[in-house]
Amino acid sequence: MPKILRNNNILFVAGDVSGDLHASKLALEIKKLEPSVNIYSIGGLRLKEVSDRFLYDLVSKGSFGFVQSFKSFGLWIKMISIVRRFLEDKKPAFVVLVDFYGFNRQVLGLCKNRDIPAYYYIPPQVWASRPKRAETISKIAKEIFAIFPFEPDIYKKHKGRVSFFGHPLLDLIPKVDAEEKKKIKRDENYEYKIGILPGSRKSEIENHLNVFVKSFLSIKNKFKNAKGYVFAVKEFEDDFYHEVLEDMLYENDIRIVRDEDYSIRSQMDFSLTCSGTATLENALLSVPMAVGYKTSFINYEIAKAIINIPYISLANIISSKEVVKEFIQNDFKADKIADYAIEILKDEKKYSSMIDELSDIRKKLGEKGVNEKIAKKIISDFEII
Prior knowledge:
Structural class: alpha/beta
């Protein structure tokens, strides 16, 4: 006879594509352990697919950045109302908050005021900026599930209950044979596969896609058989990407692809990548890359004032050194990015060295089975009847 939670309603809240993905995987693992649970969610398309009841698509309509957050104040008020009503009506056994601190901090407070246990999965990057957030989460969250090995010590200093089972990408991205990738014979006639990853949010795609495509075209001028692959997210149709582009996308040179299982991503020889989770995905796939990011002047100036680490890409942060070059704000130029990519692709020693450095990152992130371990830990906290 299956076990039943004393209250079988649970709520997941995620606000961006990456968080939505990891939340959906954790929800599935919880459902495996306790089939009787009713999963409610606020998030995106991935959570919607695995939920018994989907409350709101925050991923498609959510905001990002200091200025955008201010402009979306009305949306946030609406979302707080939805969460408050849910907590009071359904009185869930627990809530799982995934990343997206600006909004989820408010949800933490709502849970605390109603004595509802709240777990924080993928906590904010307090090691990069705004360290006081660690104190807030430590005081309120029932448990914090860290995804980097250096995070638990930060929360333990504030007496937070924290666990590290590994990074959830290890469950999704298969190991690749880095030595085989290095053995491929690449010359000027080789058909280089160049990944173009402009980001997952609307503003990121609008800020990055044209520059990355122009960089690719410069790379193609050097390597005439090169092919480009724009990795699109399912929140946006192909038409959106075509609308953003200043120039036509020619099918023979550049394709728009969606790649849920990383089978295409793993074949890339080089990627032009927006800073974020995609840089870590590339590292786990041993795909050399250039990292770029550009935002509004106001967002950039605020971020520059509060960020206290020398790098923005996870590949460099985890390695504690510049493994891949970063092109940020005023340096985010198509010619600069293309020149760097061509330099790496032409130099077999530099190319192989980058693959080796990226391959080492996987060893620092734990072992597979991350979401299963977290699900077991959460369920073990509750009395079963």
